[in-house]
Write a structure and sequence with these properties.
By secondary structure, this protein is mainly α. The chain has helices at residues 3-28, 31-40, 46-64, 68-84, 92-112, 119-123.
Length: 131
């Protein structure tokens, strides 16, 4: 496997795992906590459910390499929302540096695609692999 493909594969796994665990936490601790947090910031509660589902389901899909580019777009949108709402006043260090890093990795997945060992590769024509 080429080093670029290995790097993309590792980024995809880590990005997916990070979002999956964050989404799982939102459901395990009770989605009402997330809803309350969103409400306290003046964000419609619908978005609390949307973010939790995107993180949990999208994280699993990213790990599997399924619909990687689409999930990358959703992750990027969630990170932009987090940076400009929940983390905006905290500054970069100790504030939104994780969100920026996850945003950039999401952009990589949008641009690079799923890479090696991905379900997307099984569902596409051979000439579309790794595109």
């Amino acid at each position: 496997m080429k080093s670029y493909q290995l790097g993309t594969f590792l980024l995809r796994l880590m990005l997916g795992l990070t979002f999956f665990i964050h989404g799982l936490g939102k459901f395990q601790s009770g989605i009402d906590n997330t809803v309350g947090f969103f409400h306290s910031m003046g964000i419609p509660v619908f978005f609390a459910y949307a973010v939790a589902v995107i993180e949990f389901v999208g994280g699993a899909a990213m790990i599997l390499g399924f619909q990687t580019r689409l999930i990358g777009v959703l992750f990027a949108i969630v990170m932009i929302g987090a940076i400009f709402t929940a983390k905006s006043g905290a500054g970069f260090t100790g504030g939104y540096e994780l969100e920026v890093a996850l945003f950039v990795v999401s952009l990589h997945m949008i641009l690079a695609g799923s890479g090696a060992y991905a379900l997307d590769n099984r569902l596409q024509k051979p000439e579309e692999h790794y595109s």
